[in-house]
Amino acid sequence: MVRSSVTTPLPDKNVYPAGNRALRLPGKGPETLFAGQKLNDNEWHSVKVVRRGKSLQLSVDNVTVEGQMTGAHTQLEFHNIETGIMTERRFISVVPSNFIGHLQGLSFNGVPYLDQCKNGDISYCELNARFGMRHIIADPVTFRNKASYLALATLQAYASMHLFFQFKTTTSDGLLLFNSGDGSDFIVVELVKGYVHYVFDLGNGPSLMKGNSDKQLNDNQWHNVVVSRDANNVHTLKIDSRTVTQHSNGARNLDLKVQLIEGSAN
Fold first, then answer.
1. N or C: which end of the chain has fewer CB within 10 A?
2. What angle do CA 129, 134, 60 make, to 5 degrees?
3. Residue 24: CA atoms inside 13 Å, Cβ hemisphere, count?
4. Domain pair 5-131 / 149-263, same fold
């Protein structure tokens, strides 16, 4: 079978990127299951939804959660299947954000809808997305000079964190993001001579991690950056497809207080 890929605002079933996956089904009231964490990592993730009667199963990669529908009804009536944006909003109090990313292999009750839509084998398919893999940049911000910056809400990184962003620049040195807090606590991601440096201090003194890119990144091409810290104090820095890790001893919490600042790498 030819596996099609769509580039669009889209949700669920082999998705990339996203924060976590939620399944909502109407019974007596909407039932919601959540599965997966830190899915906005620019990698492919597999999503599977199974319902038998009132029993629900939501699987994201290798993690499965289960639930039960309330009420007396066990049948679901479908009209249209929508991916990426929800136009039918009568039964949902909070409408989810539109999806930006890639989706592939969408199959519903054994029917490969993306393949049928691409090949013209389905009676109705409305599409404003595009077939094929394309590099996606969502809402880019341009820093036009060294005085430009962007101030955001404080990074929530007390016990753990997961950051993903993309950048491109022709400048070899510049601040990508910075957030400080109580005492000496801070986090910095910067470009130094064309390479990404990640510096953090949880109270034990500053530590430096250098991305192991095989070339300088100030090449005016988009690059993906993932910075994370888990509950075991393992720090991960991933630049495009290359990853480095480091374990931090001592203090385990990052007490950030002020705004997250981005900028100065144009």
1. N
2. 80
3. 12
4. yes
Report the C-alpha gap between 69 and 52 in whole angstroms.
Answer: 10
Predicted TM-score (pTM) of the model is 0.60
* CA–CA distance, 76 with 259 (Å, rounded to integer): 46
Cis amide linkage into residue 206, ω under 30° from 0: no
Q: Which CATH number fits domain 5-131: 3.30.2000.10, 2.60.120.200, 3.40.50.620, 2.50.20.10?
A: 2.60.120.200
Tokens of 129: 């997305």
DSSP 232: T
The amino acid at 31: E
Helix (H, G, I), strand (E, B) or coil at 37: coil
- In 3D space, the residue among 260, 257, 253 whose CA is nearest the CA of residue 202 turns out to be 253
Q: Which fold is adopted by the domain 149-263?
A: Jelly Rolls (2.60.120)
Sorted by where each begins, the domain ranges of the chain are 5-131, 149-263
Rg of the chain over Cα atoms, rounded to whole angstroms, equals 22
What is the C-alpha to C-alpha distance for residues 233 and 252, in angstroms, rounded to an integer? 6
Please report, in tens digits, the pLDDT of each residue of the chain (266 residues total): 223 334 433 333 333 333 555 555 554 555 788 888 878 877 889 999 998 888 889 999 988 999 888 877 777 777 778 888 777 766 667 777 788 888 888 888 888 888 888 888 888 888 777 777 666 677 788 998 888 889 988 988 888 988 888 999 999 999 999 999 888 999 999 999 999 999 999 988 999 999 999 999 999 999 999 999 988 999 999 999 899 999 988 888 888 988 888 885 44
Report DSSP letters for 2-13, one per residue: ---EEEES--SS
CA distance 17 to 226: 12
> Token match 């888990």: residue?
230
